[in-house]
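hiii so um. not sure if this is the right channel but i have a protein structure encoded as C-alpha cells and i wanna go backwards to a sequence. like what aa goes where. can anyone help
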C-alpha cells in the first residue's frame, strides 16, 4: 500500500487455530477449548505493545498463518478458513494493549495460509502498517 509505514511485527510461535464462534448455553457463553487455550498462550507470548498513535489512525495489517501438514494429508494448503485464523490473531492483538486501540482501525487486511516448509515450525506473523 502506497504511503504505508511498517510500525510493528508480531510473531506467534504457535500452531494457528481458527477463531471459533461463541457457544451459548443456558449456563453462559464459551468458546471451544482449542481456541481458548491458543488465546491464553498467545496473550502471554506477545505482551503489551508500545505503539502510541491516535486511536483513529487507519492501519493496514498482514496476517500469515503457517501450519504443520498432517502426514496423511493430500491437500496442498491448510483446510481451515483463512479469515478465521486472521480473526484469532486480530482478537488477541486487540485484547492486549499497546498495539492498536481496536481492530476497527484496520482499513486493509491481507491474510494468507500455507503449510510449513521442511524444517520450518508452525507459526503466525502479523505485520502492522500505519496508513499516512
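sure thing!! here u go:
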Amino acid at each position: 500500500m502506497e504511503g504505508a509505514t511498517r510500525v510493528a511485527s508480531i510473531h506467534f510461535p504457535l500452531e494457528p487455530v481458527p477463531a471459533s464462534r461463541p457457544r451459548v448455553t443456558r449456563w453462559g457463553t464459551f468458546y471451544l477449548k482449542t481456541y481458548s487455550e491458543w488465546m491464553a498462550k498467545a496473550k502471554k507470548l506477545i505482551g503489551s505493545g508500545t505503539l502510541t498513535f491516535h486511536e483513529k489512525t487507519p492501519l493496514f495489517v498482514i496476517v500469515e498463518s503457517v501450519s504443520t501438514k498432517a502426514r496423511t494429508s493430500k491437500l496442498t494448503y491448510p483446510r481451515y478458513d483463512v479469515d478465521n485464523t486472521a480473526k484469532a490473531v486480530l482478537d488477541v492483538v486487540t485484547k492486549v494493549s499497546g498495539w492498536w486501540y481496536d481492530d476497527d482501525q484496520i482499513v486493509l487486511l491481507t491474510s494468507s495460509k500455507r503449510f510449513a516448509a521442511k524444517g520450518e515450525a508452525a507459526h503466525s506473523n502479523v505485520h502492522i502498517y500505519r496508513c499516512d
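oh and The longest strand covers residues 106-115.
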